[in-house]
Amino acid sequence: MRSVYFASGVILVALGVVGAFLPVMPTTIFLILAAGCFGKSSPRMERWICEHPRLGPPVVAWQQERSIRMRHKVFAIVLIWISILSSVAFADLGLPLDGMLLVIAVSLTVFLLTRPTKVDQPSAFVRGANVRGPANELRSSK
To answer: Residue 122: is it exposed, middle or buried by C-beta count within 10 angstroms (0-12/13-18/19+)?
Structure first.
């Protein structure tokens, strides 16, 4: 079973990386699922995802706090509605399927809006700890 989880994790990472470059495909959900698969099959790969400078922060935020950054929420909701509404408008799917797609869109939107929003900590520079300049040097030399 570990090999199935590992193979699934590799496929999910690949989908996540592809999603980073294609605007209509999500990234974070695939990486969160990959981290879960690797958690059951390869702690080294799970650690790699969580410690990766670009891929890791949203995965760790989800694992620790079940939170999502505001810009990711907005992006996801906008893409969900663009996809669903264009399917309903341009594909002749029939009323039952159109209704099901709208229910899915509403459900996903409610889910995303009810998750805690990840608030980024301001960097030390923003707080003023790393500000350099004549005024600070004068204060520190007194």
So the answer is: exposed
Mean pLDDT across the chain: 83
DSSP secondary structure string for all residues of 20-59: HH-TTS-SHHHHHHHHHHHHHH-HHHHHHHHH-TTTHHHH
pLDDT of 31-43, one tens digit each? 999 999 999 999 9
What's this model's pTM, rounded to 2 decimal places? 0.65
| Alpha-carbon span 62 to 117, nearest angstrom | 10
pLDDT at residue 111 above 70? yes
State both tokens at 138.
């004068």
Domain boundaries, the chain: 1-65, 66-122
State the virtual CA torsion across 62, 60, 74, 37 in degrees, nearest 10.
-70
Bridge partners (DSSP) listed for residue 117? 68
Query: Is residue 123 classed as helix, strand or coil in its secondary structure?
Result: coil
